[in-house]
């Protein structure tokens, strides 16, 4: 996390890029298109004099004709004669496109481009989509949403509502920052911070600074009418965070926790915080 984010001057990191795409992700996706497709261009080999970098007769002609016919819906005689200018037109379109058009474009290229490039392109594209916290991935050749609007709304609502209680918002912000750090995400401590946010809220609502979360949940159940099923569900999650992979213990072995684990815990903890605040009218 950057210094400006740690001191609150830069915008807070979001759970995922949904219905948006930032410059870093757009640049990465264009670079992948360049490496896997544009750089593979081969001249037709029939030019004896002058320039010979024609689109027609090149190895990328089938892809480009498909783009103009089925994606741009334009006549193929509007394709630039030379590859240099055709590539310039494609680049201009890509960097001016709306977020959803970028995904349309890379999905189309993966589908209609050379078959030998598809599998590796999809694999590497997914790795960058994950790295840049996109809410979307390639699945069975199609771009699909893997982080819903409801999940993002739960986290954002908890961040806003938890601001009324010391510690809650701090822990949630830390969990989100650790999860979404592009250079060195820390899933273990992100989960720990998510649970700590709930502990902080529960102790304040129960008026007790001592004891485990389990004991505080029992107090909440009696004093604040917390539903037994909700208490049992979160007790199970708390047990997971306490035992699985030694999250609360300084284990030396390497963690096998994933971004999915940390995201799941952040969303669940945020939902519990929102539920608790609503249940007690806080």
Notes on the structure:
The chain has 282 residues and is an all-alpha fold. The protein has two domains: 23-145, no CATH class; 149-279, Four Helix Bundle (Hemerythrin (Met), subunit A) (Up-down Bundle). Helix content is 60%, strand content 3%. It is built from twelve helices and two strands. It has helices at 3-6, 23-36, 61-71, 83-96, 99-112, 115-131, 149-161, 168-180, 187-206, 213-223, 228-243, 259-279; strands spanning 136-139, 142-145. It has a two-stranded antiparallel sheet with strand order 1-2. The chain starts with a helix and ends with a helix. Mean pLDDT is 81; it is low at 4-12 and 249-253.
What's the helix and strand layout?
Elements (H helix, E strand, L loop, with lengths): L2 H4 L16 H14 L24 H11 L11 H14 L2 H14 L2 H17 L4 E4 L2 E4 L3 H13 L6 H13 L6 H20 L6 H11 L4 H16 L15 H21 L3
Antiparallel strand pairs: 1-2
Helix pairs in contact: 2-6, 3-5, 7-8, 7-12, 8-9, 8-12, 9-10, 9-12, 10-11
